[in-house]
Design a protein that fits this description.
Order of helices and strands of chain B: HHHEEHHHHHHHHHHHHHHHHHHHH
Strand order of the largest sheet of chain B: 1-2
Shape of chain B: globular
Strand order of the largest sheet of chain C: 1-2
Strand content of chain B: under 5%
Largest sheet of chain B: 2 strands, antiparallel
Number of domains of chain C: 1
Structural class of chain C: mainly alpha
Number of strands of chain B: 2
Number of helices of chain C: 10
Radius of gyration of chain C: 23 Å
Oligomer: heterotetramer
Strand content of chain C: under 5%
Largest interface: A-C, 58 and 52 residues
Distance between the termini of chain C: 45 Å
Chains: A mainly alpha, B mainly alpha, C mainly alpha, D mainly alpha
Chain lengths: 499, 587, 235, 102
Amino acid sequence: MVALIPWSVWIIFLPLLTGIFAFLFRGRGAQLGIVTAVGLLPPLIGLTWQVLSCGPQHYSVGGWGAPLGIDLYADGLSIIMLVMTALVGIGTTFYATGYYSPTGETKEKNHQQDPALFWSLWLLLWAALNCLFLSADVFNLYVALEFLGLSAVALVALAGGPSAVAAAMRYLLVSLLGSLSYLLGVALLYFAHGTLSLGLLAESVTSSPASFAATTLMTAGLVMKTALFPLHFWLPPAHANAPAPVSAVLSALVVKASFYLLLRLWFQVFTNTVTPSVALLLGILGVAAIFWGSVQALMAQRLKLLVAYSTVAQLGYIFLVFPLAQGKGTGFSAWCGGLYFILSHACAKAAAFLAAGTVLYGFGHDRIDELAGITQRLPVTMFAFGVAGVSLIGLPPSGGFIGKWLLLNAALAGGQWWWAIVIIIGGLLAAAYVFRFFSRAFSYVEQVPICRDVPWSMELTALALGLSAMALGIIATQPLAVMQIGAPLAGPVLTGGLP
Amino acid sequence: MSFLDLSEMAQKLLLMLGPALPLAMGLALLLRSWQKILSRLNGWSALPALAVAVILPLDTYAEFSWLLLKVRLGLDDTGRVFLFFTSLLWLLAGVFGRSYMAKDQNQKRFFFFYLLSMSGNFGLILAQDMASFYLFFALMSFSSYGLVVHNGDAEALRAGRIYIYLVVLGEVMLFSALVMLYETTGSLNLAPLALAPANNIIFALFFLGFGIKAGALPLHVWLPLAHPAAPTPASAVLSGAMIKAGLLGWLRFLPLGQVASPEWGSLCILAGLVAAFFGVIVGVFQKNPKTVLAYSSISQMGFMTVSMGVGLSIPAIWPVARAAVITYALHHAFAKGALFLGAGLAPKIKDGRLQKWLLAFGLGLPALALAGAPLTSGLVAKTALKLAIAPLTGPWPEYLALLLPLATVGTTLLMIRFFVTVWPVRFASSPGALGLRLPFIVMVFFVALGAWLLPEAQKSAHKALSLDSFSLALWPVAAGILLALVAFALFRRKTDSGIPSIPAGDLVAIVSWLAKPCQHVSQKYLGPGIQELRATLSMRLSPFLQVYKKTEFLWHMEKVLSSWLAVGTALLSMSVVFFLLLLFSWQ
Amino acid sequence: MRLFSAKLIIIVLLVALAGLIAWAILSLPFNGPSLRAQVFANIGHSGVSNPVTAVLLNFRGYDTLLEIVVLFLAVLGAWSLGMVQLPGPPYPAGLFLSALLRILLPAMVLTAGYLLWAGAHAPGGAFQAGAVLGGAGILLLLTEVRFASAIVSWPLRTLLSAGVLVFTGVALGSMFLGGRLLEYPRHWAGILILVIETAATLSIGVILTVLFIGGRPSEADRTLSVKSTGKRKDK
Amino acid sequence: MNISLLYSLVGLALFSLGLYGLIAYGHLLRKILAVNVMGSGAFLILVALARGWRQTSPDPVPHAMGLTGLVVAVSATALALALACRVQETTGSTQLTEDGSD
């Protein structure tokens, strides 16, 4: 009986409905948020169980079935993304109950953030993410992308103030550019193959001018939305100026959504089209992103900007999956490494942004130079930031380490050692920007800056997310087992494959 | 439920309580309302672990499948000895610490880290699977950072910085080694690890990773900085107990007694010997008594490394060598613990005959023991080492027969140096608290008793009592005292600053010391040329350099990259290149 | 000069890319595979006879559901920018304008109704009808401030979300009645589609009107206008 | 030349033109209009090619896609216009300052 319940529908519609209800019943947002956070667990566990025991799941909306109708589809990749969304989502929800609590008026001057709108938009964004991770139809994915993009833009704008509004504007234009480029690709695919279903496209797409054009347009659009260097210009202002829970969600989840779509397309639809040379192109841009993002993070004057540039750098790593997956026998290891990196980066980055948000909330600013001694005021938050930093640097026993380790092994075993050098140098650079902030925060000062009371839910959620990034390094076997289900690549998981 | 089941359950509970109680108490310290009650009990939370070591039967195991990756705790023969001296040391240092830290404002923070490190230390001894061993090890290493930097002065922060660098390095090496080991054996259990084919990379990673903790050369640099910087109770456990975690790691993971690897064995013996002498030589020139003790620890760990190397070379001798390692570890833990506690106690001793004699005896006995004087536990340990070396082949026995007594001479010298530095110039006017004296006395008592009672040391204890070894042991000690007298005569007239000294943390100091003259030399001799070159360059490149110097260049670049025109160009050129790449690889 | 050369580079690249895509379009197989046949084969079960409406509200109804959510989101987005004053009429509606509106508005509502109904068998449907309604709403807003201020707060919010809620309700309801998500019960498809479209039309009309305001209508306006009934705010 | 092919190429031209406008012009209203032109181009391609080579009745699926895309575009445009107004209100400028820092 449990096997027959369409859990995916609930995963999409629960946050959708609570999002609308949060709009209808103003003032009930926090309760609805918690209902969603808790209520999503059973469907998520149910779907994971279905996928683990019966393999990838299909669900035909409207009963028509692909190609006429739209299918929902869940495999290991979807589950990983959904679980990642739930982890960060639950954390963000609890954080926001404190951040938007009636007693603690928010920091932004001359603008009243509306908690009801936040809850509504955030829950709808959650629905959009779930929608995207469960869709198996390229046009439906376009609608889901717009759904996601618009809710993300609105959340950024919610912070108010000139910089946030300008950032939201730029973000919206980039988002539209990316989606339209993607849409043109969808049109070409449909006219060439007469179907919109991912599964059927996977069977029929071959090397042809139309598929080249579709690959180019869709990749360009999605890469833009994923903020790969040098197309990252919209990310730092948008992520740094949004309200704290929004920054966390944007950096941890939203950029991953377009990357997820890129993975789906590259490894399932365009398998015959893409070549090692274009994969190399993305890999090189990824390397540039690692260096450029790290250097900018190192120079950032504001903590949230530092964390945002760190996202630019860390996104570079996941693009290494494309060239590494081309190696003989190392494909699956690279695939797992990339997914593990995405998963642990989500937890760690959410923790870092939430911690940074707490600092901003407590001290009213996040200028790194003036944050000396804040550890004396916010020890738990700084500990959370530290734990997140360990995962971002990629030190054991963190999830970030496992991700980098798998990528490293894929690089070494595939004879592509140059990527290994980049991965290691990237870790050192990450250590540099994390410690740059730490040396400031942990320095001892007599006159500790004044800090307003911070709700405990804000401090503890950041810590919990940081610790879950750590825990991912300890329980590596289960996520790896999930990643195997329905994976487009096969092969061993190389964990100790030194040549 | 029968009585047997019940007692088995109680045993498992006790086993878990060993590491769990300190952890729970440490975390409970965070709750303000509990702090008052708990602060009296901090030290005593080591009791369950001590009880485990003393009363539980060997080979008691407990599995907690719901915890992490199936946590497996258990008590084996090596673990029992380690747990015994470790828990005793933590217990006494904790009780000592309660009085010692009474006036410290941050004592709660201190005990938070103290209890967490304690939990880690007990846990790693009891851990029977790789994951929990690693986690407990990491818990101990990272928590003791809080102990090292506790004082918060520049010295402590510097020590902490160097400590944490090496800890992180060690953790990376250990984790990598464990993952690779898991990959080759496919099991998380500790037991079959030694059976894994000796892979040199794994071996090296383990050797270095644990070597950092054990103060092996040249990874020892944190030790003489951190041990003196930490408050006395913390330095006692750092030098007495935690340093042994590295040793235990070696015993657990290296294929001792199973696979012969003469190369690694010889390397271990060599490294151990160098450490034994290096510690003594550098230690003698120290001024801070706790630094002297830290160097002594490096030297003593060298002896243990030597016996381990013997076991690595010839698996057949391992039982004998193992007895030597374990005896030495126990003996050293007690002696070093007593010396550190004594060093902390010395400035608080009242100017009274009895008190002075107590201090002199309390410091003298462990010092003599370390030097291996007759009738002390040190002699038992040294004898065990000799027994282990005897069956070695090749040139080693001869070298060792010569070098070991020499090292003992050095140790004697070092201990005298310690005595000179630690003996208070002026005694306190009021007696030190009983809470300080009592743990110290108990500790000294265990130093006297120590190795004699160890089952593993029965053979060597028997031999140590013979007249033959008695006289053999006497001459290095006597020679050491003689040398010390000569040195005293030489430097008697000189003030303290006239006595040569080596800065603590030798290599770190050397590196920074070396950097200075290099700068000086380059400025002096290459100066004119470089200045000329710099002038020319700066003239030519000044527009570029000036922008770059202020890192505004990078900012500027980011701004340029942020314009729509730049992004548009990038997007379009990427797309065109992408399309063309696809096209050209199309058949 | 620099800007000019940058733009030149962009034009060159754009022409190159457009050329490549044009080549791809030209190489498309015409009369290639399409879903046309499948749509016409199943149209009998869809509840409507217009193929586009059948695709929009039945075969790919899930897309349309999300599309209405996106439209709803635009309102949330605009509202997240903060409160705005309701735009008062620039000058009082004159006699002529009032008379025109009295004829025009009912006609527009009627047209919307027709478009909605026609959607079942001919081009038309919820969006077209909603657009006409929205036009009517904007006209009202520009001439008669009391209209907008009367519906601020929960009635407005209910109207705004009605389309999504009804659509979702039908989608989930049909699932509870034993089908799948959006699998309308047999013979009920036509009527359910009409219900969805009616709610969607209303919502779309209101959404477009509200979007015209460009922000969250301040509830203070309502109290203000209630207090000073009949008197228009100056500027 | 086939009429649907011609229209689809016109759609592509519109798409490119819109893309150029989005990149090259600073004024936010122009950028928003440019995005709309891009969208119209894409929808035109969908509708034009739906007619196929010689078919009497067009494929309804691309039409539906176009309609859905249109509504999405309307929503996005509305949000963009509201944002642009807000940008002008808060910064006093109708353009985005082109730096990533603030």
